[in-house]
Amino acid sequence: MIQVFISINNNEEVMQLPVPPSEYNVKSTFGSEEVTGLQQSLNRIGLRQLREVSFSSFFPIKGHDYPFLQSREMWGMDYIDTIERWREKRIPLRLVITDSSGKQNLNIAVTLDSLEWNVKKDGDIGYTMTMKEFAFVDTNRR
């Protein structure tokens, strides 16, 4: 089972998702471009594009203390409120996904571009997050 951590401002605040997604998707593309020549078409290899990560799971409400929860620091809408507060700061988040052995599968700065959530029949908060890699610009480069 994976563990998912989202943090802000160099771990000033860290959130572990209580129910990690059963799977997550990473989209990694290159900006290749097809060019038509006189006698053939060529594919010009472009630059690596920013990675996109998406996953779905749920935030349990207070009183739904499932035995498989990985974190009990917050409940239900507290997660949504915290995420929205972070997004309002307009600074990148850090997404860390580890596997069951503790090895980091993914550790990238991201922007949370899309957060869709709904209240399920049992009261838990279902959600889908889509994040995009945030590239820091090195202004000291020569």
Put the structure in a nutshell:
The protein is mainly beta and 142 residues long.
List the helices and strands and how they pair.
Elements: E1 3-8, E2 13-16, E3 24-27, E4 33-36, E5 41-44, E6 52-59, H1 77-88, E7 93-98, E8 104-119, E9 125-133
Antiparallel strand pairs: 1-2, 1-7, 3-6, 4-5, 6-9, 7-8, 8-9
Structure notes:
This protein has one helix at residues 77-88; strands spanning 3-8, 13-16, 24-27, 33-36, 41-44, 52-59, 93-98, 104-119, 125-133. It has 142 residues and is mainly β. It has a single domain (3-31, 48-133), classed as Elongation Factor Tu (Ef-tu), domain 3, CATH 2.40.30. The strands form two sheets. Strands 2-1-7-8-9-6-3 form a seven-stranded antiparallel β-sheet. Strands 4-5 form a two-stranded antiparallel ribbon. A hairpin with a 5-residue loop joins strand 8 (104-119) and strand 9. The longest helix has 12 residues, at 77-88. It is elongated, with a radius of gyration of 19 Å. The mean pLDDT is 92.
